[in-house]
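Chapter summary example: a protein plus adenosine-5'-triphosphate.
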Amino acid sequence: MITATNLHKTYGKVTALNDLSFSVNDGEIFGVIGPDGSGKTTLFRILASLLLPDSGSAGINGWDLVKDFRKIRCIIGYMPGRFSLYPDLSVEENLKFFATVFNTTLEENYPLIKDIYQQIEPFKKRRAGALSGGMKQKLALSCALIHKPGVLILDEPTTGVDPVSRKEFWDMLERLKSEGITVLVSTAYMDEASLCDRIALMREGSFIATDTPQNIINRYTETLWTVQTENLSASLHDLRAHPKVKTCFAFGNEHHVTVQPDLPVAGLQYYLKEKGYSKVQINVTTPTVEDCFMALTSET
Ligand SMILES: Nc1ncnc2c1ncn2[C@@H]1O[C@H](COP(=O)(O)OP(=O)(O)OP(=O)(O)O)[C@@H](O)[C@H]1O
C-alpha cells in the first residue's frame, strides 16, 4: 500500500505539489493522469525516495519514505520517464547489471519477467541505445522488475511509444497485477485511464478528482455533442463565439460541445449554416475521461 499525506514541494516560486494526500491499495493499478507540468514526475520521484518533499510524509507497505528509504528501494521497482538504461550496454548486460545491484540474478527472477523479456530476448546482444522505443520500454520494465518488487512506480512509461506497443504494455501491467503487484503509473494519454482500477486527475500539483474511471465519467452531468464541419479550426472559433455554447474543445477530427439547455440541435445547425458551413453533423455522444478533465478544469 502507498500512502501520501500533505506532500508539498516547490521549486522556487513554482508549486509542483500542493499538499497532496492519497492512498493506493495493494494489488491496484492506480493511474495519475495529467498534462505536462502538472507535477507527476515530482510526485513519483518523491515516492521513489529520490527527492525530498518540503513537507508532508509518505510510506510504502508501512515503511517511511525518508526514515526507511533503503528498505523502500528494495521493495519498489521504479521506471523513470526518461530512458534510464545504459545505452552502451547490451540488453542482457543491462539486465545483469540491475540484477547484481539488487544482489540477485536474472535466472532467479526469470519467471516474473519471462513474458516481457521473451519479446526482446532475440535482441539480447544489441546495445540498449539501438533498440526501438517499444523495446527500450520493455527492457526498462524488465530491469525495474528484476528484484521482484511488490510495488511498481512507472513514470509515463508509454510516452512516445507506438499504439501497438502501448497496448502490449498495458496487457503486461494487467498480468503483473494478477501476480499481486501494486502499480502506480502516470500518463498524459487520457485514453489509458480506462485501463486503471482508479485514477487521479492531476492539475497544478493537486488531484482534482480521484475515483474509478467509470465513477468519474458518471459524475459528468452535461449533455455532450460532437460537431463536425468542413473547417475545424474556423468552426472552433465560431462555436466558442455562440452565446449559448458553454464549452467547445477540439477532439481529433471533431469538436466536443456543451450548450445551455435551451439551445436545440437544430438551433446550432442553423447558426453554423448561417456562418457558411455546408457539411455540419451534430450527434449526442458519451463523455470520456478527457471530457471530464476538461469540464473539471474549466470549472475552476
Ligand atoms: N528541477 C526543477 N526546477 C524548477 N522547476 C521544476 C523542476 N522540476 C519540475 N519543475 C516544475 O515543477 C512543475 C511540475 O513538474 P513535473 O515535472 O513534476 O510535472 P510533470 O507532470 O511530470 O510534467 P512532465 O511530464 O512535463 O515532466 C512544472 O511547472 C515544472 O516546470
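Key point: The longest helix spans residues 163-178.
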